[in-house]
Amino acid sequence: MSYFGEHFWGEKNHGFEVLYHSMKQGPISTKELAEFIRERATIEETYSKAMAKLSKLASNGTPVGTFAPLWEVFRVSSDKLALCHLELTRKLQDLIKDVLRYSEEQLKMHKKLKEEAGGTLDAVQVLAGVSQLLPKSREHYLSRCMDQERLRRESTSQKDMDKAETKTKKAAESLRRSVEKYNSARADFEQKMLDSALHFQTLEETHLRHMKALLGAYAHSVEDTHVQIGQVHEEFKQNIENISVEMLLRKFAESKGTGREKPGPLDFEAYSAAALQEAMKRLRGAKAFRLPGLSRREREPPAAV
Amino acid sequence: MSYFGEHFWGEKNHGFEVLYHSMKQGPISTKELAEFIRERATIEETYSKAMAKLSKLASNGTPVGTFAPLWEVFRVSSDKLALCHLELTRKLQDLIKDVLRYSEEQLKMHKKLKEEAGGTLDAVQVLAGVSQLLPKSREHYLSRCMDQERLRRESTSQKDMDKAETKTKKAAESLRRSVEKYNSARADFEQKMLDSALHFQTLEETHLRHMKALLGAYAHSVEDTHVQIGQVHEEFKQNIENISVEMLLRKFAESKGTGREKPGPLDFEAYSAAALQEAMKRLRGAKAFRLPGLSRREREPPAAV
């Protein structure tokens, strides 16, 4: 639909000015979009850094105690979240480059259209000029008609009547020229204005398509990251679920355990017999021997000593 | 499974110390969890504020031009994202309160267990004491045995032999008492240590269940927000898609349009005839009349004049 070709006429012919002014907003909106994305990229970067800091907090969680292994889950999750947001930052920074590239392209298109629109601006001004002249010309003709009629009613001399008639005819001729000029300027304006309106519409259409493609890329990046973040959350939840209380207790017992051997009771007879044996051995010198059937445990006090 | 009842024995009986030390990490990990969640809440609050600022940037987007209505989509989306993250902040702040409530509860449980563990600590120390005496007692008995044997080999007098034998018997008696003391201390230690180990395990189990429930609530809040954010992204994408280029062009044309009436061409005959009529009318005074079949357009110059 040629919306611009239909809606920018009307009294005073301001349509061209409105369209021209609107066109100049195009590069502004492109610049604003770049600013918006830049701001978003900064927000994501800040968030990413904060998450990396949070990961450090998790790393510093007490390494002792049964809860310790769960800090690792927090650390990994925070690190991954930091990465997701950093990746979004980078994608948005790339997108800003695309926006700026388009911005340059757009300025070139605008320069070209501004040159073409010069002719239309002239036509608008010419039409405005002849439109101002026309009522003056009409008023002049009207005055001559009234003068002539007044003379006729006053029954003035034929000579004066002839003079008045000549004046009226001249005024009519002048009015005819004004009307012709107006019609010519109007026709020129209509053609040029229509051409320009269609050009403006094409330009805006191209602009909007480009901008929408950029918005699509923006939405896509944000959504991609959102999916990744969802995976990190899911992983976090799964990891927490997978590390059961029983597993944490076992892990702690196995890694921090001091041994499974309880101190055994001592049998006095065996203990004292072993001491006696050792006394005999010492008397015989350094030469060691062992009585068969006497284990280490029976000869010596247990581990605690 | 009684992991703690099995893994904290071994040489030197350090198991109790390890378990006691580990228990004291429980409140530390609770405090650290509260700190972690507080940090996360702060991060979300900062992000929320940044999003609100971003929404303002979108509100300030140029209101002129065809792209203008799309800024509203950005503004709404940013506002909603700000709200999602603010809501997460609030949920996390509530969660911190739960963590701190549990922390107080935990300290009470610890106080109770510390009191109960006092008896076990005593048993550990008694066992350590008798374990140190035992080798001394043994060495003393062993020396007496050697003395007696040496006298026997040297064929000492019966009297000296009798004296030595008495000394050996006394040393054996002393050793028997040491062994009995050790056995009694050992049995007491084993029972108390086992009780305490089971208590420690129950405490750690309760702690871990509580902590895991808090982590579950944390994950749930984060996930809830994630789902909401996903809806905001989906909405953003849909809104951008729904606002077609054609719709933007039409909206712009309709709201900023200057009119659909083109300036019409003038017919000189009708235009001059109308001027003549007006001249006659003026001469007749202010009384207005209209010639039938003569439209306004034919009588006057068009809108532009």
Automatic annotation (TrEMBL), chains A, B:
Highest taxon of the lineage: Eukaryota
Q: Which residues cross the membrane?
A: none
Q: Which Pfam families match?
A: GMIP-like_FCH (PF22699)
The keyword Coiled coil is annotated on this UniProt entry: yes
The record's region (Disordered) falls at: 149-170
Sorted alphabetically, the keyword list is:
Coiled coil
In the UniProt record, does the keyword Coiled coil occur? yes
Q: What is this protein called?
A: F-BAR domain-containing protein
Taxonomic source organism: Pipistrellus nathusii
User: Which taxonomic lineage is given here?
Assistant: Eukaryota, Metazoa, Chordata, Craniata, Vertebrata
